[in-house]
């Protein structure tokens, strides 16, 4: 249920400890918004786009009946929590057999910035997510493309952008305690919710 403010533990949990309800966004949001936020704390982000690819077997009737809600909620949270001026989300349900582990791609267009600083910020954020989702990892090295002003990138519906394009490739493997390892999308939601609840409980105990 979409009740309360959006919450991604590594990004904004501390600001929401007093809330009665928080909205855990989506599996794609929990995986990718930390990467957008990692870039936005270094440079102003104009546009961020995420593609979440999950195993078809891990998508239940609730997910299938709410694809539009998934994309709308994730896109909005990319802006509200991730810090992007504009956000876009795409979900792919892959029917491959054997089922594939959750993979996420994050494209961020920002103002020109120090690439080493952005990469360090992304790696630091990934380590923070790993604290409660051990199967969360960068699949490969962060990629950068400089987009010059005389050859801007056109994003349909959003206009032309120049600056720096950052590409992040993620993999989320489930712990396989109960759900299969390929269902990282389910694991990251339950793990994020558990981390949030534990921190809120600790805050209540400490008064």
TrEMBL record:
Its EC number is 1.2.1.10. SUPFAM superfamilies: Glyceraldehyde-3-phosphate dehydrogenase-like, C-terminal domain. InterPro entries: Acetaldehyde_dehydrogenase, Acetylaldehyde_DH_C. CDD domains: ALDH_C. The keyword Glycoprotein does not apply. The keyword Oxidoreductase applies. Pfam families: AcetDehyd-dimer. Coiled coil: none annotated. Keywords: Aromatic hydrocarbons catabolism, NAD, Oxidoreductase. Residues 27-180 form the Acetaldehyde dehydrogenase C-terminal domain. GO terms for molecular function: acetaldehyde dehydrogenase (acetylating) activity. Belongs to the acetaldehyde dehydrogenase family. This is Acetaldehyde dehydrogenase (acetylating). It comes from Pseudomonas alkylphenolica.
């Amino acid at each position: 249920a979409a009740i309360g403010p959006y919450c991604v533990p590594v990004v904004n949990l501390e600001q929401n400890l007093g809330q009665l309800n928080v909205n855990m966004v989506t599996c794609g949001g929990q995986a990718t918004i930390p990467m957008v936020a990692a870039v936005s704390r270094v440079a102003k982000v104009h546009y961020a786009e995420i593609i979440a690819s999950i195993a078809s077997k891990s998508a239940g009737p609730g997910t299938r009946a709410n694809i539009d809600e998934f994309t709308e909620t994730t896109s909005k949270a990319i802006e509200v929590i991730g810090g992007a001026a504009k956000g876009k989300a795409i979900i792919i349900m892959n029917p491959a057999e054997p089922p594939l582990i959750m993979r996420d791609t994050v494209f961020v267009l920002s103002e020109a910035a120090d690439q080493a600083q952005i990469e360090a910020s992304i790696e630091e954020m990934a380590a923070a997510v790993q604290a409660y989702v051990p199967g969360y990892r960068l699949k490969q090295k962060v990629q950068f493309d400089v987009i010059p002003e005389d050859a801007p990138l056109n994003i349909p519906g959003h206009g032309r952008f120049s600056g720096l394009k950052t590409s992040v490739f993620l993999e989320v493997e489930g712990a396989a305690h109960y759900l299969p390892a390929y269902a990282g999308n389910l694991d990251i939601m339950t793990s994020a919710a558990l981390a949030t609840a534990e921190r809120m409980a600790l805050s209540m105990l400490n008064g």
